[in-house]
Design a protein that fits this description.
The protein has 22 helices and eight strands. By secondary structure, the chain is α/β, with parallel strands linked by helices. The longest helix is centred in the C-terminal third of the chain and has 20 residues. The relative contact order is 0.11. The structure holds guanosine-5'-diphosphate (GDP) and magnesium ion.
């Protein structure tokens, strides 16, 4: 979903993460590229302008400058502001206090209305509701058959009449049927046209009058970009929409519609269609979409974990030790434990932009499956040995190996790796890592 936009934003973040401290100029350059990426994705220019202004203000604020990981903080801000742009919180269907609840689906021809009606009905059925589909699109006989077929396939009742019945009558009769069947939701598929025109709007307004639906949902094709956004404004001003359903999000939509439509129209996105199949339908979660677009779900989780795991005092002490080269196996052990608290090592390292280079240099013993083994070896050492590994001779090595259930060569390997780490530390290769992790990876 939105791969091009996603790739571009990730390239910007990688560049920012590659630098240690960020200047105002770095931030502005990064945001300039974010702005371009959004515009190229066909996001409404006012929405982009507003978005960049909000991100910039927060990025230049204290929360980033004080932070140990400025680039990660910016990603976090971009994510939060993107969630706001997409619409905070999840927007659910509002059930009526006098069942059945009624949802009327409107939209142009070909946007996916009929398919979406079936998807919505199936979604409701799966959440324990009893839906009734209503084929009120009398402009397309084939549309009626399409809905009937879908209904049969999923064992959902469909109310239909002959093509010549006015849709107003179809709806009135459908409501009667709904009461008889004691359904909880009525989903009405209405007629669309190729373009917005007055007769269509007038007919939909009449239907709305007849049905008094609690939900008037506009179905729009996400691939149509800013046209979809204009459509939402127009339908909303004419009919009063309660929600949007963005279809064809699985296609090659650039993201412009999804990222603009809420801000511009003020109407929340409630569902997205992600394929032709009837189960390719999801409630809309702004935070999940933002994470997908940013490809940063993992990094955000990582930042949260790192924030929880490391306190600044701890980091300062470590840095001092690294500087004075007094980092010993005891510190190493406590670092190992911090890492274990955070989760699988390989995964953690992957989450860190810029850290993957470092990961390749990690001693083998740092691999997750080896962590426990390394820990056991260090635990079998005396405090003196941990503080000053150079005293570990042949007989000590045998004792430690026996105590931790490994071979003496394993102890050798660990000591070699540790010496290598110390060397790397002195060379300052940790400088490329986010500051609060330098101690961890040496
Ligand atoms: N890829 C994809 N195709 C969709 C989606 N929703 C609908 N379609 C397709 O869009 C076309 C038009 O759908 P239809 O429901 O007949 O549109 P309507 O004219 O608005 O009723 C059909 O080929 C559907 O399979 C979606 O979320 N993803
Ligand atoms: Mg249709």
């Amino acid at each position: 979903m939105f791969e091009v936009l996603s790739d571009k934003l990730n390239a910007v973040f990688r560049k920012l993460s590659g630098k240690g401290k960020l200047s105002e100029k770095d931030i502005d350059e990064g945001l300039r590229q974010v702005r371009l990426a959004l515009l190229e994705a066909d996001v409404n220019f006012k929405v982009v302008k507003d978005f960049i202004a909000r991100v910039r203000e927060r990025s230049l604020g204290a929360e980033v400058l004080r932070s140990l990981t400025p680039a990660q903080q910016i990603i976090k801000i971009v994510n939060e502001e993107m969630v706001k742009t997409l619409g905070e919180g999840e927007s659910r269907l509002e059930p009526s206090s006098h069942p059945p609840s009624i949802a009327m689906l409107v939209g142009l021809q070909g946007c996916g209305k009929t398919t979406t009606a079936a998807k919505l009905a199936l979604h409701l059925k799966h959440s324990g509701q009893r839906p009734l589909l209503v084929a009120a699109d009398n402009r397309r006989p084939a549309g009626i058959e399409q809905l009937v077929t879908l209904g049969e396939q999923f064992d959902i009742p469909v109310y239909r009449e002959k093509v010549t019945s006015p849709s107003k009558d179809v709806c009135a009769h459908a409501l009667k049927q709904a009461k008889e069947l004691a359904v909880t939701w009525v989903i009405v598929d209405t007629a669309g046209r190729m373009h917005i025109d007055e007769p269509m709007m007038a007919e939909l307004a009449r239907l709305k009058e007849e049905l008094k639906p609690g939900e008037v949902l506009l179905v729009v094709d996400a691939m149509t970009g800013q046209d979809a956004v204009r459509m939402a404004e127009e339908f909303n001003s004419r009919l009063g929409l309660t929600g949007l359903i963005l279809t064809k999000m699985d296609g090659d939509a650039r993201g412009g519609a999804a990222l603009s439509i809420r801000r511009v129209s003020g109407v929340p996105i409630k569902f997205i269609g992600v394929g032709e199949k009837v189960d390719a339908f999801e409630p809309f979660y702004p935070d999940r979409l933002a994470s997908r677009i940013l490809g940063m779900g993992d990094v955000l989780t990582f930042i949260e974990k790192a924030e929880k795991t490391f306190d600044q005092q701890q980091v300062k002490e470590l840095e001092k030790k690294v500087r004075t080269a007094s980092f010993n196996l005891e510190d190493f052990l406590s670092q190992l434990r911090e890492i274990q608290k955070m989760g699988p090592v390989a995964q953690l390292v992957e989450m860190l932009p810029g850290a993957s280079q470092m990961a390749r240099r990690l001693p083998e013993g740092m691999e997750e499956k080896q962590l426990k083994k390394v820990e056991a070896m260090i635990l079998s050492m005396t405090a003196e040995e941990r503080r000053n590994p150079s005293i570990i001779d042949g007989s000590r090595r045998r004792r430690i190996a026996q105590g931790s259930g490994v071979k003496p060569q394993d102890i050798n390997q660990l000591l070699n790796q540790f010496r290598q780490m110390q060397k790397l530390m002195k060379m300052g290769v940790g400088g490329k890592l986010p500051k609060n992790l330098r101690g961890m990876f040496g």
